[in-house]
Specification:
The complex is a heterodimer of chains A (about 350) and B (about 220). Chain A folds into three domains: about 70 residues, no CATH class; about 170 residues, no CATH class; about 70 residues, Alpha-Beta Plaits (2-Layer Sandwich). Chain A is about 55% helix and about 10% strand. Chain A contains 17 helices and seven strands. In chain A, helix 2 packs across helix 3, helix 9 packs across helix 14 and helix 11 packs across helix 12. The longest helix of chain A is centred in the N-terminal third of the chain and has 36 residues. The two termini of chain A are about 30 Å apart. Chain B has two domains: about 40 residues, no CATH class; about 150 residues, no CATH class. The chains are: A mainly alpha (about 350), B alpha+beta (about 220). At the A-B interface, helix 1, strand 3, strand 4, helix 5 and helix 6 of A face helix 1, helix 2 and helix 3 of B.
C-alpha cells in the first residue's frame, strides 16, 4: 500500500514535467505546421541540421511522420504525407490557460468565467471547453494546482530551495497572510470583468502568464533562426516573466508557497468548485502517532491530522507520502471525517 | 493584503470586525489599483507596440466589434498557434490592456484566409467563419505618391496578382494601377506583403487599414 502511494508522487511529477514539455511542444508544432504548409520543411531540416531549432523540428517531424497517415509512398519512396501531417499538427493549440488537445477543448474556469462576465453572454464553445476541467475539479478538487499548473510545479521546486538555503545559514522568513485574500481577489476580479468589461485576472494569473511566455519564448527562438541565428535565446520573453520571478523570490525568501496559499484567484475558484469533492485525504485515527510530518509536508499549509480537509486541499498526496504510519489515505466521502483528538488531551479523549 | 498571523484583537466583537473589514477593504483597494494601473498602461503616444498608427489594429478574421472583442478574448495564444502562416502575432505587455490579443502585420506574413483561427478560439472572440467572403478585417488603401503604376515610374500589378479575390477586390486601370473595391476587399494584406515598393520605415504603396470601430471611434 505504502509503495503504491509513493508512486503517486512519481506519477504527479511526471505529469507536471510533461505539461511543461507540452507548453514548449505546442508552439514548436505550430511553427512546424507553418513550415510544412509552406513546403519549406525539407529545406529547413537540411539547412538547420545540428542546431537547437533544426533538432526540435526533426524530432517533431519524426513524431508526426510516425503517426498513422503521416507517411505515404510516392514513386517507390516513403515520403511525408503533407495533408496527413497537417491534419494531425493542427490538433494542438494553446497551453495551460486554454488548450486544444486533439478533439478536447480545455479552458481554465477563471478565464471562461471572466470572459462570460465581461461579455455578459454565454456561448456554446466556452461551455464545451469547461466540461473536462469542471468535472475533474468536482470529483477531485483543486487537482489543477497540484497536477497540471506549470507555475505550481515551478513554485514547488523553489520550495525545495528553501531547504537548501539552510546550508548557507540563511533562515528564510515564513510570513503568514490571510487565506481569504484569494477569494477577495477572485470577487474583485470578477466584479471588474462584469462592470468594466475587462478580463483583468488573466493578466496576473501565473498559469496564463506562463502560457503566453512559453509561446513567446518558442516563437522568439524560431523567429531568430529564420534570421540565421541559432541556439537558445530568451529574448522572446517579455517582462511579464519578471512577475513570475518576483513571486518565486518572494516565496523563497519571505513566505512559503505564498501565491498558491494566499493569493491565487484561480486556485480560489478551483477550491470553490471542488468544495464538495468526493475524493478526499482522510485519516485513520487509530494509526496516527501525531508525529506532525504531514503538516510539514503539506504545500498548502494544512493540518491533515485534524482529518478535516476543507476547500483548500489540492489532493496532491504529499501528506500521504510523508506519513510513516500509513494513517493517511484517499477516501470517498463528502465531508471532513471525525475529528482526530490528540492523544495527549485526555479530557477530550475520554 | 497583509494580515498578522496573530491578530492583535481577540476574535469576535466590534474591534475584531472593524479590524478585519478594514484589512479586507485595503486588500480590495490595492488589487483594484493594481489592475486599473495595468489597464491604463500604454506607451506614451497611446499607440500600442505593433499597431500601425495611421492604419489601426488589424484583427484576425471574424473578430468581434473591438470593445466586445477586448471583453471576450482571454489572451490564450490559441489563434496564434492555429495560424497556418504565422500571420497572427500577439501584443506584448507594453500594450497594456491589449496585451496578449492577436493582430495582423501583413508586411511579414499576410493572412491567407484559411479560417483556422475562428474555430480555435475558446470564447468566440473570433467567430468561426464559413467562407472567405465573410471576412472583413479591413480595407487596402493605395498611396498614390508611392505606387509605381500610379505615379508614372513603371507598370507593376503585383497587388492585383497577389489578391485572392482579384478581379473583384482589386481591378486594374491604366498602366495596371490598382483600384480597390470595398465591397469585396477583406483586408487580408497579401497585396501589402507583395507590394514592390519598400520604403525605409516598412511602408508599402498599398496597405491594409482597419475599418473597425471601438465604441464608435476608429481604432
Amino acid at each position: 500500500m505504502k509503495v503504491e502511494l509513493k508512486k503517486i508522487q512519481v506519477l504527479r511529477r511526471t505529469v507536471q514535467v510533461s505539461v511543461i514539455v507540452l507548453l514548449l511542444f505546442i508552439p514548436s508544432v505550430s511553427r512546424y505546421t507553418n513550415y510544412v504548409a509552406a513546403r519549406e520543411i525539407d529545406d529547413l531540416l537540411e539547412k538547420w541540421d545540428g542546431t537547437l531549432q533544426g533538432e526540435s523540428l526533426a524530432l517533431i517531424d519524426g513524431i508526426f511522420r510516425g503517426l498513422p497517415g503521416g507517411e505515404k509512398e510516392r514513386v517507390g519512396q516513403i515520403v511525408r504525407d503533407r495533408e496527413g501531417v497537417l491534419s494531425q499538427t493542427q490538433q494542438f493549440r494553446g497551453g495551460s490557460w486554454s488548450a486544444q488537445l486533439g478533439p478536447i477543448s480545455l479552458s481554465d474556469p477563471l478565464g471562461a468565467l471572466e470572459s462570460i462576465l465581461a461579455r455578459q453572454k454565454v456561448v456554446r464553445v466556452v461551455v464545451v471547453s469547461l466540461i473536462v476541467p469542471v468535472i475533474a475539479t468536482l470529483l477531485f478538487g483543486r487537482i489543477f494546482c497540484s497536477w497540471i499548473c506549470p507555475v505550481g510545479f515551478m513554485l514547488e521546486m523553489s520550495d525545495k530551495l528553501r531547504g537548501a538555503l539552510r546550508y548557507l545559514e540563511i533562515r528564510p522568513h515564513d510570513m503568514h497572510f490571510s487565506r481569504g485574500t484569494k477569494y477577495v481577489l477572485l470577487v474583485v476580479g470578477a466584479a471588474i470583468a462584469f462592470i468594466s468589461a475587462a478580463p483583468v485576472l488573466g493578466y496576473i494569473y501565473p498559469p496564463a502568464i506562463f502560457n503566453r511566455e512559453a509561446h513567446d519564448l518558442v516563437f522568439g527562438i524560431f523567429d531568430r533562426a529564420e534570421e540565421g541565428k541559432f541556439g537558445f535565446w530568451a529574448g522572446g520573453l517579455t517582462w511579464m516573466s519578471l512577475v513570475l520571478l518576483g513571486i518565486l523570490l518572494f516565496e523563497v525568501f519571505v513566505s512559503r508557497r505564498w501565491w498558491c496559499r494566499y493569493v491565487c484567484p484561480g486556485g480560489a475558484l478551483y477550491s470553490l468548485i471542488g468544495a464538495a469533492r468526493p475524493v478526499r485525504v482522510s485519516l485513520i485515527a487509530k494509526k496516527c502517532t501525531h508525529c506532525a510530518d504531514c503538516i510539514v509536508a503539506c504545500p498548502i499549509g494544512l493540518n491533515p491530522m485534524l482529518n478535516k480537509m476543507g476547500v483548500e486541499c489540492d489532493n496532491c498526496g504529499e501528506c500521504i507520502s510523508s506519513c510513516h504510519d500509513d494513517a493517511l489515505k484517499y477516501a470517498l466521502r463528502l465531508r471532513g471525517g471525525e475529528e482526530n483528538v490528540p492523544v495527549f488531551d485526555k479530557s477530550k479523549a475520554a | 493584503m497583509m494580515k498578522a498571523h496573530h491578530s492583535p484583537t481577540p476574535r469576535g466583537g466590534r474591534r475584531w470586525f472593524l479590524h478585519h473589514s478594514g484589512v479586507l477593504a485595503l486588500q480590495a483597494g490595492a488589487v483594484w489599483a493594481l489592475l486599473m494601473g495595468l489597464l491604463r498602461l500604454r506607451i506614451p503616444d497611446g499607440t500600442p507596440q505593433g499597431a500601425r498608427p495611421a492604419l489601426g489594429i488589424v484583427r484576425p478574421p471574424g473578430a468581434l466589434e473591438e470593445s466586445e472583442f477586448l471583453a471576450t478574448c482571454i489572451r490564450c495564444t490559441r489563434c496564434a498557434d492555429a495560424c497556418g502562416v504565422h500571420a497572427i502575432k500577439l501584443f506584448g505587455p507594453v500594450a497594456g490592456s491589449l496585451q496578449g490579443t492577436p493582430y495582423l502585420d501583413p508586411i511579414g506574413a499576410a493572412c491567407n484566409m484559411c479560417l483556422a483561427c475562428g474555430p480555435s478560439c475558446p470564447t468566440e472572440a473570433l467567430m468561426p467563419l464559413d467562407a472567405v467572403a465573410e471576412v472583413d478585417m479591413g480595407i487596402a488603401v493605395v498611396d498614390d505618391r508611392l505606387c509605381v503604376s500610379i505615379n508614372g515610374t513603371g507598370v507593376c500589378g503585383a497587388c492585383f496578382t497577389a489578391c485572392p479575390l482579384r478581379g473583384k477586390a482589386i481591378t486594374q486601370g491604366i498602366r495596371n494601377a490598382p483600384e480597390i473595391h470595398a465591397d469585396y476587399c477583406t483586408g487580408c494584406g497579401l497585396c501589402e506583403q507583395f507590394c514592390i515598393v519598400d520604403e525605409r520605415a516598412g511602408v508599402r504603396a498599398i496597405q491594409v487599414s482597419t475599418n473597425r470601430l471601438w465604441d464608435g471611434i476608429a481604432v
